[in-house]
Give the backbone structure.
Amino acid sequence: MAAWFVTELCLDLRPFLVDRIRRTKESIMKMLLRDFRTGLYLGCGREWTQHLETARTFANRFRAEAYRVCHGLPDATVVAIPGSETRRWRPYFPREPDFTGNPAPTRRTTLEAKIELGLGNSLFIRGEGGGLNWHRSQAMTQIDQSTWIWSTYFATQPLILQLLLNDLIWAKGENLTLEPGMRLQVLPDFEWPEIPRIASVE
């Protein structure tokens, strides 16, 4: 029943759609009157011309045909040419919404920690701002034996942060403050003897 209804509806709409398509095509075309014997176009003042720029244009085929009949132009025929500014269909792709809630990227903000840790130990960071939070840590990247780096491009206000050893032991001292777009170097310290220090070799 549903398929029959859709089929009947499409058949009923087909003449309307065909006429709509024809009108759309005509709306982006210029309608002219052309003498099929001489090849000239009807210009302003009922003068015939071979230049399209000076030819008389009509809004649609019906008006051009009505003019031809009313003015007794039996040798003229209605022709269509592309308009000077042909409208073209262009696809539109809406921008995907940002569900992360992150602000637009800014300058790089970097925290650099200088500390030597034993094998198997790592540094983590928690805080607020720039994608940080106090309930879930982000691992810092080890650059060399005693350098750990964390950075972000999403800092729009001062960051409040703190370091953790192995995501378990908080660093000593007050929370750190890092301004957007700046680079801060710190020397963190942790409760002894939780971390096995590396003795410097002379």
Summary: The CA atoms of residues 102 and 154 lie 7 Å apart. The chain is about 20% helix and 30% strand. Residues 2-6, 84-89, 196-202 have pLDDT under 50 and may be disordered.
